[in-house]
Amino acid sequence: MDAALVTSSIEDIEIQLLLEALYQHYHYDFRHYARASIKRRLLQARAQLGYGSISEIQAAVLRDSTLLPRLLDFLTVQVSEMFRDPSYFRALREKVIPHLHTYPSLKVWVAGCSNGEELYSLAILFHEEGLAKKTMFYATDINPTALKAAQAGVYSLDRIRLFTENHQASGGRSSLSDYYTANYGRAVFDKSLCSQVVFSDHSLVTDAAFAEMHLISCRNVLIYFDRELQDRAVGLFRDSLARRGFLGLGSKESLRFSSHADAFADFVREEKIYQRTGP
Ligand SMILES: C[S@@+](CC[C@H](N)C(=O)[O-])C[C@H]1O[C@@H](n2cnc3c(N)ncnc32)[C@H](O)[C@@H]1O
Description:
This is Chemotaxis protein CheR. By secondary structure, the chain is α/β, with parallel strands linked by helices.
């Protein structure tokens, strides 16, 4: 028998068992994430945390909950930046915001907000467009370390140049420096940007819908899910959106294969911004 095949299939069994253990003991459900990238990240965790096998990680994390946040950092990808893909924010600004002006109050859900870069981008954009006062933001993620960082709103000054370029490219009407204070190599974003933000731990895999959102922005999250899970998340977005509410997925994701596609119409096709239409 081919030894490499045997090795890889044992690893696959161990991964399956670890994911089951995480679900049963901690209710974190990674069982339907795209398996190849989960495997790659667990192998990194094994090497960097110094374990001999995935089963050893399983035994350790079941008995020691302090290992869980470190494992979550491997299992969830935290890459983000402010005004990432500026054309997406420009499309929101030019095409979606005029519709949002017609509502007396607004609810915006940033699903999978990571360290908060996307949330602050939207908060600044809504401020610049005169919508901040009537908007409630909901920023959610499953990674507690990321949520804490989002709440703190502190980023390395090294990243500010990129954030500033993105902000300008998104059609920014002010200077990004109006929104942060530089302090010992860090940019501390203005707390007032978060005065109407609810941060919460929410999983698109296991948790329920929110009510009557006018805009949901969920970018670079569904790519980590398998088809079945993507469908669940899109169903959750449909149930959470007000009629005529908007869903922004960003250029890398689409509703094309979703069984809920009929509930949405293309709004800005290139940026994968949809409007809820049907039932
Ligand atoms: C690559 S980041 C995307 C950050 C931001 N949306 C952006 O596009 O810049 C993916 C985020 O999805 C979060 N995530 C992964 N699984 C999730 C789930 N089941 N429910 C909610 N968020 C999840 C991760 O913790 C991570 O913060």
